[in-house]
């Protein structure tokens, strides 16, 4: 019987790729929309030499998840556009705080002096960690804000970690689990009585490849990963934009004659002793096993009739909406600073979350290209009245003028509201995911779940999540 993959975003396409490699055919992918790629969407203006990214902008090469994506990129023969650690886009991180643009320190020396928006040298935050008593945390989880505030003080929580959480998941650090980003540091603190003490202790213990998780590579680490390490890439993009990755996956699957059924929304998913049944608008499709890469709330709707308790657990993973506004200007002399972009700490209570300087990261042929992000966890506070695209663009332009001094009209722009695009790993998320997977295992459902809701929200995370779910299947499952 066929194996079915629900969703043809990067996670579902990757699941199909790894399924095909491990089990071969038959295999079918069902995708509700008429295109593949999910939130990864590149709008190319080849004639003018620039492009807009509607979702993620760059990929990081680090760690096992980074190496895994590079292996895929290499296998699909995609052309990478590396950004080295020495590049301004990798070195310069800006904050707009207290009415000013502030450059975050990017060297050890930067920890010594007082750097705005901080009122004390940052090394004092490290001393705070050495002195602060350890609180044993209830249920072994807390918000990342409270962890950083406890260990390093309120300024770091407000002006370093809160904006970083905005950049990664457009979320509120006061709600996001410390395990989302700082699991290791949190565990070191709980075990060794401080973050620095734990980090120093761990440095004496050399890690093996297996401990690093690199064991997934059968022979050796991918060549492109070795190159990224040797050339010290901080991040990379793809020639033609990040949408080339899902497109290349789709072409590969098409070459292998794998059926990607677009505009085929699953309406319900049920299980019986023979396997799974996917109800589409006009048909019932049986499957031996289903890998769902759908957002948790969508999968909840599919299973709720037969498994209401599973649906309730899936619905407990909240999502936020993000407004992405791409702006293009004809001149490349407009930006007076270089860097990846800027973030606005939530304590500033402004309607924008940050601005990415796309034309600093990648060559845009003499154009200035910016991306303004708005909404996220604070979407309802600012945009509950459903402003028009023009109003949203006006807000973005107002802040571009105020913060970056660019007051001319963009020549070209695009406004996208990405509804429920980023899951929020709120306190207790890890337990929630364990419980969802335990439910599936206890009821012996022929179902695996991967995607941004479960094992990390980045491109690397969702590709690795898909690979691991496929690797976990018993040999006879497909
Ligand atoms: C749609 C908006 C998105 C926001 N975050 C993500 C998307 C798709 C996903 C994301 N962005 C970053 C990561 C971290 C790991 C990685 O894969 O690169 C993830 C999962 C990195 C990132 N993106 C922005 C920033 C400032 C950062 C933090 C790290 C860094 O400084 O490099 C830009 C940005 N993304 C979002 C906002 C609101 C924003 C602001 C400029 C939300």
TrEMBL record:
Tell me the Pfam families matching this sequence: Amino_oxidase (PF01593)
Tell me one GO biological process term: protoporphyrinogen IX biosynthetic process
Enzyme nomenclature, EC number: 1.3.3.4
Which pathway is recorded for this entry?
Answer: Porphyrin-containing compound metabolism; protoporphyrin-IX biosynthesis; protoporphyrin-IX from protoporphyrinogen-IX: step 1/1
Predominant subcellular localization, coarse grouping: mitochondrion
Q: Does the keyword Oxidoreductase apply?
A: yes
The cofactor binding remark recorded in the entry reads: Binds 1 FAD per subunit.
Gene Ontology MF annotations:
oxygen-dependent protoporphyrinogen oxidase activity
Q: Where in the cell is it found?
A: Mitochondrion inner membrane
Which GO CC annotations does the UniProt entry carry? mitochondrial inner membrane
Q: What class of enzyme is it?
A: oxidoreductase
* Keyword field: FAD, Flavoprotein, Heme biosynthesis, Oxidoreductase, Porphyrin biosynthesis
Chemical reaction(s) catalysed: protoporphyrinogen IX + 3 O2 = protoporphyrin IX + 3 H2O2
Task: State its cofactor.
Answer: FAD
Enumerate the spans annotated as Amine oxidase domain: 10-471
Q: Domain of life, per the record? A: Eukaryota
Instruction: Give the family this protein belongs to, as stated in its UniProt record.
Output: Belongs to the protoporphyrinogen/coproporphyrinogen oxidase family. Protoporphyrinogen oxidase subfamily.
Free-text function comment from the UniProt entry: Catalyzes the 6-electron oxidation of protoporphyrinogen-IX to form protoporphyrin-IX.
PANTHER family of this UniProt entry?
PROTOPORPHYRINOGEN OXIDASE
Listed name of the protein: Protoporphyrinogen oxidase
């Amino acid at each position: 019987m066929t194996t079915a993959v629900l969703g043809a975003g990067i996670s579902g396409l990757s699941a199909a790729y790894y399924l095909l490699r491990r089990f071969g055919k038959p295999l079918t992918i069902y995708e509700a929309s008429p295109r593949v790629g999910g939130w990864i969407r590149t709008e190319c203006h080849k004639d003018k030499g620039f492009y807009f990214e509607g979702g993620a902008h760059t990929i990081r090469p680090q760690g096992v998840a980074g190496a895994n994506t590079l292996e895929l990129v290499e296998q699909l023969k995609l052309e990478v556009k590396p950004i080295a650690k020495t590049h301004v886009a990798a070195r310069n991180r800006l904050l707009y705080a207290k009415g000013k643009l502030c450059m975050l320190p990017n060297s050890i020396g930067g920890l010594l002096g007082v750097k705005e928006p901080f009122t004390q040298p940052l090394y004092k935050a490290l001393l705070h960690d050495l002195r602060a008593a350890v609180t044993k945390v209830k249920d072994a989880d807390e918000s990342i804000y409270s962890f950083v505030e406890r260990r390093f003080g309120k300024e770091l929580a407000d002006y370093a970690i809160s904006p970083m959480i905005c950049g990664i998941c457009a979320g509120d650090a006061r709600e996001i689990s410390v395990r989302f980003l700082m699991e290791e540091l949190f565990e070191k603190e709980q075990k060794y009585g401080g973050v620095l003490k734990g980090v120093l202790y761990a440095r004496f213990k050399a890690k093996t490849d297996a401990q690093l998780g690199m064991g997934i590579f059968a022979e050796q680490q991918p060549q492109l990963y070795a190159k990224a390490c040797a050339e010290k890439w901080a991040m990379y993009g793809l020639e033609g934009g990040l949408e080339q990755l899902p497109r290349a996956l789709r072409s590969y699957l098409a070459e292998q004659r794998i059926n990607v059924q677009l505009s085929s929304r699953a309406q319900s998913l049920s299980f019986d002793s023979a396997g799974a049944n996917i109800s589409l608008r006009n048909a019932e499709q049986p499957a031996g096993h289903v890998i769902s890469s759908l957002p948790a709330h969508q999968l909840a709707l599919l299973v709720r009739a037969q498994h209401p308790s599973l649906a309730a657990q899936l619905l407990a993973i909240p999502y936020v909406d993000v407004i992405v506004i791409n702006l293009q200007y004809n001149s490349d002399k407009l930006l007076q600073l270089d860097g990846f972009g800027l973030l606005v700490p939530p304590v500033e209570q402004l309607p924008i979350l940050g601005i990415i300087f796309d034309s600093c990261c990648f060559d845009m042929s003499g154009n200035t290209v910016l991306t303004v992000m708005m909404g996220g966890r604070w979407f309802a506070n600012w945009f509950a009245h459903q402003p028009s695209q023009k109003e949203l663009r006006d807000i973005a332009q107002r802040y571009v003028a105020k913060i970056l001094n660019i007051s001319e009209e963009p020549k070209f722009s695009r406004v996208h509201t990405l509804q429920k695009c980023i899951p929020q790993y709120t306190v207790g998320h890890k337990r929630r995911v364990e419980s969802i997977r335990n439910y599936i295992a206890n009821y012996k459902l022929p179902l695996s779940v991967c995607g941004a809701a479960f094992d990390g929200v980045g491109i690397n995370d969702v590709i690795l999540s898909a690979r691991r779910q496929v690797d976990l299947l018993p040999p006879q499952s497909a």
